Nitroreductase family protein (Lentilactobacillus parafarraginis F0439), 220 residues
Amino acid sequence: MDNVQKRVFTNNDFQDVILDRHSIRNFDPSVKIPHDEMVQMIQEATTAPSACNLQAWRFVVVDTDEGKQKLRSYFMKFNLPQINTSSAMVLLFGDTDAYKSYRELWNKAYTNKQITKAKLEEVLHTFLPIYEHASKEMLTADASIDSALAAMQFMLIARGHGYETNPISGYNSENAAATWGLDPNRYVPVMAIAIGRPAPDKQDEVSSVRYPVKQVYEFH
Ligand SMILES: Cc1cc2nc3c(=O)[nH]c(=O)nc-3n(C[C@H](O)[C@H](O)[C@H](O)COP(=O)(O)O)c2cc1C
């Protein structure tokens, strides 16, 4: 499942995919997402940009009853409908050790003739030391930003595949990594994404109200 690259979207209407995304909190519980499609969506989501191409994201897909029971132990009660009815809950973690695989990634790109020797040297001598000497705070912030971008990309990709989503951070983040056997010192919880097809009879009551645009920008 490593190299899936099918690019077959059921919804190719860019305007609809972007502008008509809304959080869905009640899903059709009978819908299962095949693992190869989930992996494809994750692969597509990882086309998201990341700082220095560090790709400091980790996806944990929870789609079993046992897994969902674990979610109930640390998610806030108001998020139970999404846990109970979604096809899957996709948990995004930022990897603060991502820079440790950085050398291997770029060496491979050089070996595959995707980049020049000069580019390889530049990357390894300019970017890598920044992370090797970075504070935990910076590594956490970078990993969180990378993962949040991948999360947004995943939610739009999901719409391309005909699914709807709800981003969720209403949970006890202290327990998030350890519940899945991840090292809490390395992996920072960023958000969960409930994914599935909307329940036909239960329309969401919460509308996506936005501030008037003039309140949120300025030019200089
Ligand atoms: C980081 C983040 C955390 C969120 N956490 C929750 C949550 O715990 N439960 C929930 O129902 N919605 C959650 N939301 C969804 C927001 O309420 C929703 O995106 C917002 O109201 C705008 O509505 P829209 O997604 O329909 O455009 C979260 C959204 C983001 C981006």
Observations:
- The chain is about 40% helix and 15% strand.
- The domain at 14-215 is CATH 3.40.109.10 (NADH Oxidase).
